[in-house]
Amino acid sequence: MKLTRTLTIAVAMLLMASLTTFAGDEKQDAKKDAPVELKNQTNCPVMGGKIDSTVYTDIQGQRVYHCCPMCSAKLKKDPDTYFKKAAAEGILFENIQTACPVSGEKLEDKSVFTDYEGRRIAFCCKKCRGTFNEDPAKFMSKLDAPAEEEKAEMKDMKATGHEGHNH
User: Fold this and answer.
1) Contact residues for 107 (Cβ-Cβ < 8 A; gap 6+)
2) Is residue 147 part of a domain?
């Protein structure tokens, strides 16, 4: 009889201990899965100073503001470092995308997006978001393509003697 009572108490204690452990795990999982509250950029990711809204770098579909022009080269040299640091701090850069990195379609709105290592990436549809999430590195270079194309167009305009037309 004593043995049965002792076993019953031991089993009850083990059951309570396991329930407490699982409840603690759920709380930790909920914290881990909780969305990070993002805030707008107020400081330069390179030097940490207050941003100057006239000094920025457009890179990987994001507009990153700086405290001074010298910070742009450092950002361009190693963007992943600065984007990951911003992500850890909950900083959201201004998204300047005009096209979906997967389909290339013009973005009508930016309601379908994902946050990837400090960048908010917009898509034309949920299917493209899923494709991006399968292999993000494959599509990251496409985010700079529109900016590079615009630079090339400006260079072509200068080369064809477009200046002097008074507009």
Assistant:
1) 97, 98, 99, 100, 122, 123, 124
2) yes
- With respect to residue 124, please indicate whether it lies within any of the assigned structural domains: yes
How many CB atoms within 10 Å of residue 25? 10
pTM of this prediction exceeds 0.85: no
Please name which of 59, 101, 100 lies closest in space to residue 81, comparing C-alpha atoms: 59
Burial class of residue 54 (count of CB atoms within 10 Å of its CB; 0-12, 13-18, 19+): exposed
The set of residues, in sequence order, having a beta carbon less than 8 Å from that of 119 and lying 6+ positions away, is 60, 61, 62, 83, 93, 95, 143
Work out whether the CA dihedral 143, 147, 148, 152 comes out positive or negative: positive
Please check whether residue 153 lies inside any domain of the structure: yes
pLDDT for 61: 93
The pLDDT value recorded for residue 22 is 46
Q: Residue 33: inside a domain, yes or no?
A: no
The identity of residue 154, as a single letter, is: M
Average pLDDT over residues 125-139: 95
Give the domain range for residue 152: 39-158
Q: How many domains does the chain have?
A: 1
Q: What is the pLDDT of residues 80-104, one digit of tens each?
A: 999 999 999 999 999 999 999 999 9
